[in-house]
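Attaching the record inline, Q. Sequence:
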Amino acid sequence: MNDSSASSARPAPVVLDVWCELQCPDCRDALADLRALRARYGDRLELRLRHFPLEKHKHAFAAAQAAEEAAEQGSAWPYVEAVLGRVAELDRDGEALLVSVARELGLDAEEFDTALIDGRHILIVDADQAEGKAIGVTGTPTYVIGGERLDGGKSQEGLRERVEEIADRLLAEQA
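Structure, as predicted:
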């Protein structure tokens, strides 16, 4: 059998790790940039949510676990965007908001509640946070693309353009 799939296979997407926390107003503000990047690159850019809950936000660790449950139920980014859009409510309502957002998105809210109680996603969140610390992440959002770390916690100014420059270069190198 002639297997021509190797020659016609699409190049692997460029990976953009997004170190984020769902109680972070700066991460909420970065959503427009993430949407623009998704629209521009489509499946040539893989956005990977990486968790970096900050101690100053008391619901961030639970929100990271809830995002993992959303991923398990097939709705990671819609859930992340919905929670980030309601940072003030998360500050006020905590885990109740995390479960109600799941319900609003048609996810299994009871499973979210159980996941937050049994801690099934804690190891993923801890591993992301440890890796983030190891590579020098100190705040959110922080982006890593092509081995380069871009800190969006201080300013979003020019970050999307910088991500685009790196993504364009990496995609051109694959061609």
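The first helix runs from residue 5 to 8. The two ends are 27 Å apart (CA to CA).

More tomorrow.
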